[in-house]
Amino acid sequence: MSIFFRPAFRGAVAFSSFGSTRSSYKSSFNQCCRRSFRDDLRLGQTRTTLNSRKYSTKQDGPSIQQQATGKSTASSSSQASQNFKTRQEMYKQKNQTLLMYSVSVVLIVSGLSYAAVPLYRVFCASTGFAGTPIVASGKFAPERLVPAQEAHRIKVVFNSDTSEALPWQFVPQQKYVSVLPGETSLAFYKAKNVSSQDVIGIATYNVTPDRVAPYFAKVECFCFEEQKLLAGEEVDMPLLFFIDRDILDDPACQNVDNVVLSYTFFRARRNERGHLEPDAPDDVVQKSLGFDEYEHKPKPEERSK
User: Fold this and answer.
1) I want to staple 200 with a disulfide (CB 3.0 to 4.6 A). Which of 42, 93, 106, 268 is the partner?
2) What is the CATH number of the domain that holds 198?
3) Which domain holds residue 270?
4) For residue 278, what pLDDT is reported?
5) Where in this chain does the entry annotate a coiled-coil region (predicted)?
């Protein structure tokens, strides 16, 4: 090839190369456009799917927000249920505690009421309250049972009464005895059942004046005990007592010369607790125990003896 045709040939080759390159660029551009169109199409489909899920009906199932709300509601319901159970257990424990306290109070009150009569008798017998002679064992020490020879004698008058409902004859076998403080004395009462059937009786007692009761001690007596007499039966009831020497140290008893020991027999009955008690109105029983203003006094002829 001549030298004049070389540049022309080179230009043709270059133009041919440029054309092929342009075609290649155009093909690449078309592919990119198609790919971008497909991507846009997919993106549109994805958005449509998400929107359809977001605005789906209940038949298609709950949305993510609804699911989250449902989980929160379920958690709150579970917590509320747990709190309710906890409060219920606390109330149950409080009710059980209150029930135990109530039962304890009822049992204590019932026990005290059941033991009221025996405790009252023990109290009266220990302190001499309301004219009740003392029967405490501490009073019976040998050194206390020594007569006070330098003291004046005290006349003890015996009195007896029976309830109208009791078909008994009940009388003291001696009207009175004179004793020194610290000197023991034995006396007797006689009781007879004048009915045609067996009868159970029970006796109450008191001492007057009341200020002497703390020093009047009974070693043995038949008071507050069941005494059953068969039809027509007659028995002797012993009473062993003494007046404590401490009475000499009590200024209120310095001028006491006469003491009355009164016994009252009632027909016995069992109360709802199973204890024997006098079958008589309460005011009558209280009077027999010395809870009244009436004070037994020896008769003038008895004082002169």
Assistant:
1) 268
2) 2.60.370.10
3) 121-303
4) 82
5) none
